[in-house]
Design a protein that fits this description.
alpha+beta; eight-stranded antiparallel β-sheet; single chain; Multidrug-efflux Transporter 1 Regulator Bmrr, Chain A; 8 strands
Length: about 140
């Protein structure tokens, strides 16, 4: 489904040293640095950079956050056109390392938007709740 995101969202992020396979450990380290993910909006961002897929574990920047002091980078979930899908009840599909079906959904979205993907922006996982995970592919 085509979705028009109206506003930029500032995020503070920790880059995974191992790309997507290291996502779980990177979220664990992010949680250690900020104290807790409870009550926070959290995101997984990915894109190709120099032939390698990069992955960032992120939370939305809130008032009083100091990303630099926590050793986190600041990244923007940019406004614009996206293809968006929802994975319902994603937490029941989580095996501790992966979410069942997530790579397939990204693959299907990439295939149907092959000529329209904006590679300058991140693909995004937005963990809206324990029940809903929104998956975004950026479009030109």
């Amino acid at each position: 489904m085509i979705y028009l995101k109206g506003e930029n969202e500032p995020l503070m992020c920790l880059k995974s040293p191992n790309g997507i396979p290291g996502a779980s450990e990177t979220f664990d380290e992010l949680e250690k640095r900020i104290g807790s993910l409870k009550g926070r909006r959290f995101y997984g961002l990915s894109r190709m950079e120099n032939g390698k897929e990069e992955y960032f574990a992120c939370v939305r920047v809130e008032a009083g956050d100091e990303p630099e002091k926590l050793g986190l980078s600041e990244v923007v979930f940019e406004a614009g056109r996206y293809d968006r899908e929802v994975i319902r009840d994603w937490s029941s599909k989580w095996d501790g390392d992966n979410i069942e079906g997530l790579p397939d959904i990204f693959g299907e979205m990439a295939q149907r938007n092959e000529t329209m993907i904006d590679e300058s922006r991140f693909s995004v996982e937005y963990y809206r709740s324990q029940k809903e995970l929104y998956v975004y592919i950026p479009l030109k």
